[in-house]
Amino acid sequence: MKIPNFKKWIIFENDNYILVNKPPYISSLEDRDKTLPTVYQEAKKYGGDTQLCHRLDKETSGVMAIAKNPEAYRNLAIQFEKREVEKIYHAVVDGVENFEGNLIDRNILVSGRGNVRIDIEGKPSQTVVKTEEIYKFHSLVACKPLTGRMHQIRIHLAYIGSPIISDEVYGGEKPYLSVIKGRKFNLKNNTEEQPLMSRVALHARSLKFKDVDGSEIAIEAEYPKDMRAVITQLRKYK
Question: Residues in domain Pseudouridine synthase RsuA/RluA-like (predicted)?
Answer without folding.
Answer: 16-158
